[in-house]
Design brief:
The complex is a heterotrimer. Chain A contains 25 helices and six strands. Chain A is mostly helical. Chain C folds into three domains: 3-144, Beta Polymerase, domain 2 (2-Layer Sandwich), CATH 3.30.460; 172-204, no CATH class; 212-318 and 328-532, Orthogonal Bundle (Cytochrome-c3 Hydrogenase, chain B), CATH 1.10.645. The longest helix of chain C has 29 residues, at 257-285. The chains are: A mainly alpha, B alpha/beta, C alpha+beta.
C-alpha cells in the first residue's frame, strides 16, 4: 500500500470513530476509543515509517480556493513523516489508556471519544498541510478541540475552565502571531504554498527574515511551551482529564516544535546566526526554568508539566544549535544537532506519555496526585511502579534508556561549538551547555524524588484507601511505551539513519554519516575513517556482529574535522550488554559467593531504637527537594506567611502554621505585567470615549492617514 | 589549621603503654576491695557496712564479688580494720563456655555503645577511651553509631524499662557473630538501682552477656581490658563467676 | 529585700494568706495559700518580684496533699515557699504555668507521678512515663502504688503519635535516637522540618528514668546518699552535697570547719573537671580534632587528679551526712591544687588558641541564642543562664556551706549564644581554681595525724523535712528530703539543673540548620541522667 492510501485509511478510521462513538451505547465508548484509536494510530505509524524508511513521500493538491489564489495541498515530506510517526507511536498506547482509564470516574461521556478522534485527525492534518491556509485551518480546529477537551469533557471544577480559557487565549494569540509571520513569508514569495515559499526564501531581506522568525517563534513557542509564554502549560496539564493528559503531553506539544522546525529549517533555512542564538538561549532558559519548577513541585501532574517545558527546552536548544551551525556552514554539525533534537522529541513524547499514564493510574487508584500524601505504592502496584521507573530512568537520561542517547547527542553537539569562529557565539554555547548540564543533573534529582516519594518508603495514605494495580488496559500501554523507551535507547544506530532522511534536506549533510559509521571493518573502500583509526577500535570489539546484524553496527561515533579532530563515541547497545552482565555477576557473587554458606537474616530498617517508626517520620517530597528550593530562592522568591499559635499563655506554643506561596517566575515577570498594562491601557482607551462627534471624526481621520502611510510604505518595500 | 597539628605534636605522646606494659600512673582506677585475708570473725561488721552485699564467706574465707562493688569505700573508711584495697584494673570477666569467635573478630572491631540508663560516669569513661591517653583506635577498636556495623555491643546502665525495647532492637539489628560487653556495676547487677520497678537488675535480664566489666564506673583501662577479652586478645580476670549475679 | 517588708506586702495584697515566718537559713517564709489564689500569687513572685522558680515539691501526706512551690531570689534570706494543702480526695489544682512558665515541666511531672490534674495546663501526659510504654493511670509516686500490678496490666498506647506543632505543606518529623551518635546518652529528639532547616526540636526524655525518688523511700539516709551520688555521677559530689545539706538542716547540725572547706575544695574540683569535659564536647561538636584531644587530655588529667587525691575519679564515697567520710591530707590537697592550677593554665592556653580560630567561632557565634528574658521566664540555670545574663548562682544568691566567706566572681555574658556559653565555662573554671586555692589556704590545722576523718558531726536522726541546695556544675540543684519517725526517707525529691535547662533547650534550637544541632546540644551542656533521675 502506498502512503496516500494509508493516510486516507487513517482519516476513514477517525471518521468511523466519530460515527461509532455517536452511535454506540455509553458502556462501549471505551472500546470504540481504544480499538479505532489503535487502528488510526497504527495507520499513522505505518505511513510515517514507510515515508521515512522507504522514502514514500507524496504531494497532493486538493482544490484551489477561488478568490484567494491558494491551492489546498496535502503533502507528506520526510519532516512531516517524523512527526506523523511520533504521533502514531504516542496515540497507539494513549488510545488504549484513554479507553481503559476514562471509565473511572465518571465514565467517558460521549463527547470525549468524538473530540479525541477529531483531535487525531486535526493533528495529522497539521503535519500533512502543504500550504498556509490548510495549516492554519487545521491548527484552529486543533486549538478549539483541545479547549473543548479540557473544559467541556470534564465537569466544571475550580480552575478547570480558567485553565481551558487560558489555553485557548494563549493558543489564539500564538496563532495570530504565527499567521502574521507566515503571511510575511507568503507575501515575499507571492504564494501561500509551502514549497513556493521555501523556493522564494533566499530572496528575503534581513528585516523580513527577522520579522518572520520572531513572529513565528513567538507564535509556535506558545504551543511548544517555551519561556516566557508557557504559563498555560502546567495549568492545562493539571486540569486535563486523565484520558486526555497523555495525548496533550505526548502529541499536541509537538505541534509547536513542528512549526518552529518547519519554518526555520525547511521554509526559511537559517542564514543569520542571530535567530539560532535566540532559539538556543530561549531553549536553555526554558529547560532550566522547567526543571527547577519540576524539582520543587509536589503534584505529580504539575511536575510532569514543568518537566515537559524542560524537555521542550532541550529540544529547542539542540535545534537552535543546529540553526547556528547551518548559518555558519557546518552542515555535519547541523545534522548532528538536528538529529539530536528530533531524537529527543521522539523520546520525550514516549516517556512523557508513559509517565502521564503512570500519574493517571496513580490518581485513579489513590485519588490524589500529591506526592506528600503518597509513598510506598510499590507494595500495592508493583507493575505500575516498574513501568513508571523505566519512564523515570529514561527522562532522567540514564543509560541505556532513550533519554540518555538524545541528551548526550545534544550536549555533544553543543561541545562541538569549538569549531565556530566567533568568540561571542562560543561563549553563548558554553553557557548554554553548562545550563543544559545543570538541567540534566537536576532532572536526576527530580525523578529520584518523584519515584522515591511516590512508590518507595512508608505508605502515607490513610489505611482505608486500598492500593491495587490498575487494569490491564491501563498497564498495557505503559509497558508498550516502556519497551519503546528501552528499544529507542539501545538501538540508536538504527534510529539515527531513519531520522537522517528528515535531517539531510534540512542540514545539507547526513547525520548518519557523521554519527553512525558503518561497521569498523578495516575496509579500504570505506574512506571516511582512516585505517589506523579503525584498527584502534578493533581490540574493543566495535566490529562484533558485522556479519550477523543488518545495518551499520552498534556504535555511535563522531570524528571531527581534520582541523579539530575531536572524537566522541558511545554505544548504549553494548552498554546494555555490559550492564546486564554486571547485574547478573553481582547477583551471582552475592547469591553464590557471599551468602551461600551464611544464614540470611532480614531485619527492619534501623530507626535509632524508637518504639515504632511512623510514616510522618520519613522524608516528604517537599522536604526532599527543599535544598533545591533554598539554593534557587532568588528565582522562586517565595513569600512565607507564618502564624504562630500559643495556648494559655506565652511560650506554650501549640502550632506554627506556615504557608509558602510562590508565583511562577514567568507569571511574575510576564503575565502579571501584561495584564497590568492591558488593564491600564483599557482604562486609557476608555477615556477616549467621551461621546463627542468631532472627536470621533478626528479618530477616523487619523486612522485613515495611518492606513495610507502604511500602504505607501508597503509599496516602497 | 596547621598550627593545631603542630600544637598537637608538640604536646607529646600521652598514650598509655597498656596492654603491652601495665599502666602505673596514679588515679587511673578506683580500685576494689580484696577480702581474702580479712578476719572471718569481723564479717558481720563488714556486711553491715557494705550496702550491696559484695562480701560473702565460703570455706572459712571471705570473698568479694567485684561485680557488686559500687566504690562506696565504706569497708575502708570508717571501719576497723579496713579491708585490703587493690588498685588494679584488669577486671573483666568472661562467661564459660565461650562460643567460637569467627573470622569477623580478627580484624578491626566496631563497637556500638548503648546507654541503658547509665548515670553518666561509665559513659564518660567510655568517652575517655577516645582521648589521647587511651586512644582506642590504635588497638583496632572503633565506636560506631549504628548497630549495623557493630561487632560488639557495649551496654552501660541497669537497663531501664523504657530503654529495654531499644536495647533489644540494637542487639537484633547487629549482624552475627556479636558479643555483648556489660560495663559497670549497674549493668552487671543493677548496682544502686537494683530494686527499682523501673529498671532491670543488669543487662543479663535482657540479653546474653559475654563479658562483664565491673566498676562503678568501670575505669577506661578496665573497659579496654573487657574489649580485649571479648576479642580473645587478653585473658579474663580470675574468678569468672556464674552467668548472672545472684539477686 | 527585707523579710519583714516582703511579709508586709504579701499580707496587704493577699490578706487571707497565712504567712509563716521561718528561722531556717535563707528562708524568708512560707506562705500558706488557698489553691485559687495560687496562680496569681506565684505569678507576682515570679514576674514582678523577679524571684527564680526552683521547683514544685509534691508530698502525699496521711490526709492531705502538700504542694510546695519554691522561689528564691538573688539576696540573702530571700527564699519563699508557697504552700497549698488540700485533702487527698481532690486531685485538681490550678496551673501556675500560665504565669510561671518555668513551672511547666514541674506540673507535668506531678501529673505523671501522682495523677494530679493542673487545670489550664495545655500539655499534660506523656512525659516521664511514655504513653507508648505505660498505660494511663500508673501513678508511681503514690504511696499505694503497686508496681507488680502496673506491670501485669501493662498496656502501652499502640497508636501513639508525636505531637506535631509545625503545620506546613510537606512538614515531617525527623526522629533522632534514643540510640544515636557514638556514645551519647539516650534521649529522643523529634525535629520538625520541611527539609534543610529544622523549624522546631522537641526532646523526648526519660528513656533513662530509674525512679530513684521512689527507690529512696523507706531507705536509710546512708543508703539514700548512694543514690544521690550515683544518679548523675558526672556531678556526683554536688548532688551528694545537696542531699547531705538537707539532712544537716533537718538535724540542725553544723559541719566541722575543715570538712566544710574540703567539701568546697572537692566541689570546685568537680566543677573544673566537668567544665573541661563540657569544653571537650564543644570542641568535638565543631569537629576541631586537636582541640578536642587536648581538652580530652585535660579532662582525663583532672579525673586522675581526683582519683589520686580521693581514690575515686568521680569523687564517690567521700561525703557523709555531717562531714566527710575521710580526711584528705594537706599535702595531698596542695599537690592536687598545684596539678589543677597547671591544668587551668593549659585550659587558658586552649581558650586563647580557640579564640583565634575563625572557623570555630563562626560555628558558635549566634548559634542557639537564648535572649535574657526568655532565659529568665524558662527558669534556666547554671552557665547556660549566665551566658544569657541571668546570674542565678546559688553560691552567691543563697550561700551555703561556707561560700559566703570566700571571694569569687560569677562570670556573666550577654549574647546568650553558643560562644557566650563557652566563655562562661572557661571563666568559671578559673574561678573554681581560685576557690580551691582559698579553701586549701584556709584549712584549719590541728587534726591529729591519726584522725581518719576530717570530722563528722554525729547526725541525730529525727523526723522533719528540709531543702538542700548547691550550685552544681550545670546549675542550681535542689534536694528535698523528708525523714519519718524512724529516720528513714519518707520523700526525696530532686530538682536537678538539667531539668530546667532541658525545658528551655528548644529555645536554642528553633529554625536552625541541621548541621548545627550537635553544637547546640554540646553548648547547652545537658545531662540526661541528671534530668531522668
Amino acid at each position: 500500500m502506498d502512503t496516500p492510501t494509508i493516510i486516507s485509511m487513517f482519516f476513514a478510521f477517525c471518521g468511523a470513530g466519530i460515527l461509532l462513538s455517536l452511535a454506540a451505547p455509553s458502556s462501549r465508548q471505551g472500546h470504540v476509543l481504544a480499538w479505532l484509536g489503535c487502528l488510526a494510530s497504527l495507520a499513522l505509524v505505518v505511513a510515517g515509517a514507510s515515508a521515512l524508511l522507504a522514502g514514500q513521500t507524496f504531494r497532493q493538491p486538493l482544490w484551489t480556493l477561488p478568490g484567494l489564489a491558494a491551492t489546498l495541498t496535502v503533502k507528506l515530506d520526510s519532516l512531516s513523516a517524523v512527526f506523523i510517526l511520533i504521533t502514531g507511536l504516542v496515540l497507539f498506547p494513549a488510545s488504549i489508556f484513554a479507553g481503559g482509564s476514562g471509565g473511572n470516574p465518571p465514565g467517558p461521556s460521549r463527547a470525549l471519544p468524538v473530540l479525541m478522534f477529531g483531535l487525531y485527525a486535526s493533528l495529522a492534518l497539521i503535519f500533512l498541510a502543504g500550504d498556509v491556509v490548510l495549516f492554519l485551518l487545521a491548527w484552529e480546529v486543533m486549538s478549539i478541540l483541545c479547549w473543548l477537551l479540557i473544559v467541556a469533557a470534564r465537569k466544571k471544577e475550580n480552575g478547570c475552565t480558567d485553565s481551558g480559557y487560558l489555553l485557548l487565549a494563549m493558543g489564539e494569540a500564538g496563532t495570530v502571531a504565527a499567521a502574521l509571520g507566515l503571511l510575511v513569508l507568503a507575501v515575499g514569495a507571492g504564494s501561500l504554498n509551502f514549497s513556493a515559499m521555501a523556493a522564494a526564501a533566499p530572496t528575503l531581506s534581513t528585516f523580513a527574515r527577522w520579522a518572520v522568525f520572531l513572529l513565528t517563534f513567538l507564535g509556535f513557542g506558545v504551543k511548544a511551551g517555551l519561556m516566557p509564554v508557557n504559563f498555560w502549560v502546567p495549568r492545562a496539564y493539571a486540569a486535563a482529564p486523565r484520558a486526555f493528559a497523555p495525548v496533550l503531553a505526548g502529541a499536541t506539544l509537538n505541534l509547536g516544535l513542528y512549526g518552529i522546525m518547519r519554518v526555520n529549517a525547511a521554509l526559511l533555512p537559517a542564514s543569520l546566526v542571530g535567530p539560532g542564538i535566540v532559539v538556543l538561549v530561549v531553549g536553555t532558559l526554558s529547560a532550566l526554568g522547567g526543571i527547577l519548577y519540576a524539582t520543587t513541585d509536589q503534584d505529580l501532574k504539575m511536575m510532569l508539566a514543568h518537566s515537559s517545558i524542560e524537555n521542550v527546552g532541550i529540544i529547542v536548544a539542540g535545534f537552535g544549535a543546529g540553526m547556528v551551525f547551518v548559518a555558519t556552514r557546518h552542515p555535519a554539525l547541523a545534522a548532528i544537532a538536528f538529529a539530536a533534537a528530533l531524537y529527543h522529541l521522539l523520546n520525550h513524547s514516549l516517556y512523557k506519555t508513559l509517565l502521564f499514564c503512570g500519574a493517571g493510574a496513580v490518581e485513579t487508584q489513590t485519588g490524589t496526585c500529591d506526592m506528600d500524601q503518597l509513598g510506598g505504592l510499590i507494595q500495592g502496584m508493583p507493575l505500575t511502579a516498574l513501568a513508571f521507573l523505566i519512564g523515570a530512568l529514561s527522562i532522567a537520561a540514564l543509560p541505556p534508556f532513550n533519554g540518555f542517547v538524545s541528551e548526550w547527542l545534544t550536549l555533544q553537539a553543543m561541545l562541538r561549538s569549538a569549531e565556530l569562529s566567533s568568540t561571542a557565539v562560543k561563549i553563548v554555547f558554553a553557557l548554554c551547555g553548562a545550563g543544559l548540564a545543570l538541567t540534566a543533573a537536576l532532572a536526576v534529582t527530580c525523578f529520584v524524588k518523584v519515584f522515591a516519594m511516590t512508590f518507595l518508603g512508608m505508605r502515607r495514605l490513610p489505611p482505608e484507601i486500598p492500593v491495587r494495580e490498575p487494569s490491564a488496559r491501563v498497564l498495557a500501554p505503559m509497558f508498550i511505551l516502556a519497551a519503546l523507551c528501552l528499544g529507542f535507547g539501545v538501538l540508536p544506530t538504527y534510529v539515527i539513519p531513519a531520522l537522517d532522511r528528515a535531517v539531510r534536506p534540512l542540514a545539507g549533510a547526513s547525520a548518519a554519516a557523521a554519527l553512525v559509521p558503518p561497521f569498523f571493518a578495516a575496509n579500504p573502500a570505506h574512506t571516511t575513517l582512516p585505517v589506523a583509526f579503525v584498527k584502534a577500535f578493533h581490540p574493543i570489539g566495535a566490529q562484533v556482529g558485522q556479519h550477523i546484524l543488518p545495518g551499520r553496527g552498534l556504535v555511535v561515533l563522531h570524528r571531527g574535522s581534520a582541523a579539530n579532530p575531536v572524537v566522541f563515541a558511545m554505544s548504549t547497545s553494548y552498554m546494555l550488554i555490559v550492564l546486564v552482565g554486571l547485574l547478573l555477576l553481582t547477583y551471582g557473587v552475592i547469591r553464590l559467593g557471599l551468602t551461600r554458606r551464611r544464614r540470611l537474616i532480614r531485619r527492619a530498617c534501623w530507626d535509632g531504637g524508637i518504639r515504632r517508626l511512623l510514616p510522618e517520620m520519613t522524608y516528604t517530597a517537599t522536604g526532599f527537594s527543599n535544598p533545591v528550593r533554598v539554593i534557587f530562592d532568588a528565582v522562586f522568591r517565595p513569600t512565607t506567611v507564618e502564624d504562630t499559635r500559643e495556648t494559655v499563655a506565652e511560650h506554650f506554643r501549640t502550632a506554627i502554621r506556615r504557608e509558602k506561596q510562590r508565583v511562577h517566575v514567568m507569571d511574575r515577570l510576564v503575565l502579571e505585567p501584561v495584564r497590568h498594562t492591558a488593564l491600564k491601557l483599557a482604562a486609557k482607551l476608555a477615556a477616549m470615549h467621551h461621546g463627542r462627534i468631532n472627536a470621533y471624526a478626528t479618530y477616523v481621520l487619523l486612522a485613515l492617514l495611518a492606513a495610507l502611510t502604511i500602504a505607501l510604505l508597503g509599496r516602497g518595500l | 589549621m596547621s598550627q593545631w597539628v603542630l600544637h598537637g605534636i608538640l604536646r607529646g605522646k600521652k598514650t598509655t603503654a597498656y596492654p603491652a606494659r601495665p599502666e602505673t600512673a596514679a588515679g587511673v582506677s578506683p580500685g576494689r576491695p580484696v577480702a581474702d585475708h580479712y578476719p572471718v570473725s569481723a564479717l558481720e561488721a563488714l556486711l553491715a557496712r557494705c550496702p550491696t552485699r559484695v562480701f560473702s564467706s565460703r570455706d572459712g574465707q571471705i570473698t568479694a564479688d567485684p561485680r557488686r562493688c559500687i566504690h562506696c569505700y565504706r569497708c575502708v573508711r570508717g571501719l576497723e580494720p579496713p579491708v585490703d584495697w587493690s588498685n588494679t584494673y584488669e577486671w573483666a570477666l568472661a562467661h564459660e563456655p565461650r562460643h567460637e569467635l569467627g573470622r569477623a573478630f580478627r580484624g578491626s572491631i566496631h563497637i556500638c555503645v548503648v546507654d541503658a540508663g547509665d548515670c553518666g560516669a561509665c559513659l564518660n569513661e567510655v568517652k575517655q577511651l577516645n582521648n589521647p591517653y587511651y586512644n582506642l583506635h590504635r588497638l583496632g577498636f572503633f565506636i560506631t553509631p549504628t548497630p549495623r556495623h557493630a561487632d560488639i555491643l557495649l551496654v552501660v546502665g541497669p537497663v531501664t524499662d523504657q530503654m529495654r525495647p531499644a536495647l533489644r532492637k540494637v542487639y537484633e539489628a547487629m549482624p552475627a557473630p556479636k558479643r555483648v560487653v556489660a560495663v559497670g556495676a549497674c549493668a552487671l547487677s543493677g548496682g544502686v538501682f537494683a530494686g527499682s520497678f523501673a529498671c532491670a537488675r543488669g543487662v543479663a535480664e535482657v540479653l546474653p552477656v559475654d563479658v562483664q566489666v565491673p566498676g562503678n564506673p568501670a575505669p577506661p583501662l578496665a573497659i579496654l581490658h573487657g574489649l580485649l577479652v571479648a576479642t580473645g586478645r587478653q585473658v579474663p580476670a580470675v574468678g569468672a563467676g556464674s552467668k548472672a549475679v545472684p539477686a | 529585700m527585707d523579710q519583714a517588708e516582703l511579709k508586709a506586702e504579701m499580707e496587704q495584697r493577699w490578706p487571707d494568706l497565712a504567712w509563716r515566718s521561718s528561722n531556717a537559713a535563707a528562708l524568708a517564709g512560707e506562705i500558706m495559700g488557698a489553691p485559687a489564689a495560687l496562680p496569681e500569687l506565684c505569678g507576682h513572685l515570679f514576674l514582678e518580684r523577679k524571684l527564680g522558680f526552683a521547683g514544685l515539691i509534691v508530698e502525699e501526706g496521711a490526709t492531705a496533699w502538700q504542694l510546695r512551690y519554691v522561689f528564691y531570689g538573688e539576696r540573702e534570706r530571700e527564699q519563699v515557699h508557697v504552700l497549698v494543702e488540700t485533702p487527698l480526695v481532690g486531685k485538681t489544682f490550678p496551673s501556675i504555668a500560665k504565669f510561671v512558665h518555668a513551672a511547666d515541666w514541674h506540673e507535668r511531672e506531678a501529673e505523671d507521678m501522682y495523677g494530679l490534674v493542673f487545670t489550664g495546663h495545655p500539655r499534660l501526659g506523656d512525659f516521664i512515663l511514655h504513653d507508648d510504654a505505660w498505660q494511663e493511670g500508673v501513678e508511681p509516686m503514690r504511696r499505694g502504688f503497686d508496681a507488680a500490678a502496673a506491670e501485669r496490666q501493662r498496656q502501652p498506647d499502640a497508636d501513639w503519635r508525636p505531637r506535631r506543632i509545625v503545620h506546613e505543606r510537606g512538614a515531617f518529623v525527623m526522629p533522632i535516637g534514643p540510640k544515636f551518635s557514638g556514645s551519647a546518652e539516650s534521649v529522643h529528639f523529634l525535629l520538625e522540618t520541611v527539609g534543610e532547616d529544622v523549624i522546631r526540636a522537641t526532646p523526648r526524655l526519660f528513656y533513662k528514668w530509674r525512679a530513684i525518688e521512689k527507690l529512696a523511700e523507706g531507705k536509710t539516709v546512708h543508703e539514700a546518699l548512694l543514690l544521690a551520688e550515683r544518679f548523675a555521677a558526672t556531678t556526683a559530689f554536688a548532688h551528694g552535697l545537696a542531699f547531705c545539706q538537707a539532712l544537716e538542716t533537718i538535724a540542725g547540725i553544723q559541719v566541722p570547719p575543715r570538712a566544710r572547706l574540703l567539701r568546697i575544695f572537692l566541689a570546685e574540683l568537680e566543677r573544673l573537671r566537668h567544665h573541661a569535659g563540657a569544653i571537650q564536647e564543644i570542641c568535638e561538636s565543631t569537629a576541631l580534632v586537636v582541640a578536642h584531644s587536648q581538652a580530652g587530655i585535660l579532662e582525663e588529667d583532672l579525673l586522675r587528679i581526683s582519683g589520686e587525691l580521693t581514690g575515686h575519679r568521680y569523687l564517690f564515697g567521700l561525703l557523709a551526712p555531717g562531714g566527710l567520710l575521710c580526711d584528705l591530707p594537706d599535702a595531698a590537697c596542695a599537690k592536687a591544687l598545684a596539678q589543677a592550677s597547671a591544668v587551668l593554665q593549659r585550659l587558658d592556653e586552649l581558650e586563647k588558641r580557640l579564640r583565634a580560630v575563625s572557623s570555630f567561632l563562626d560555628r558558635l557565634e549566634e548559634v542557639g541564642s537564648v535572649p535574657q528574658r526568655t532565659a529568665f521566664v524558662y527558669g534556666l540555670v547554671g552557665p547556660v543562664a549566665r551566658a544569657s545574663a541571668v546570674a542565678r548562682d546559688l553560691r552567691k544568691a543563697q550561700p551555703y556551706g561556707g561560700y559566703e566567706k570566700l571571694s569569687f566572681e560569677v562570670p556573666m555574658e550577654e549574647e546568650g549564644d553558643g560562644y557566650a556559653r563557652l566563655r562562661i565555662l572557661f571563666a568559671e573554671a578559673g574561678q573554681s581554681v581560685g576557690l580551691m586555692r582559698q579553701a586549701v589556704a584556709a584549712l584549719p590545722q590541728g587534726l591529729g595525724a591519726a584522725a581518719r576523718s576530717s570530722g563528722v558531726t554525729p547526725l541525730p536522726l529525727r523526723p522533719g523535712a528540709a531543702l538542700g541546695w548547691v550550685e552544681a556544675p550545670r546549675g542550681a540543684a535542689f534536694h528535698w528530703v523528708r525523714l519519718d519517725i524512724d529516720g528513714k526517707i519518707a520523700r526525696y525529691h530532686i530538682i536537678p539543673p538539667s531539668f530546667a535547662n532541658w525545658h528551655g533547650f528548644h529555645l536554642a534550637v528553633e529554625k536552625f540548620a541541621f548541621q548545627d544541632f550537635p553544637i547546640m546540644l554540646s553548648t547547652f551542656d545537658l545531662s540526661v541522667a541528671e534530668n531522668d533521675r
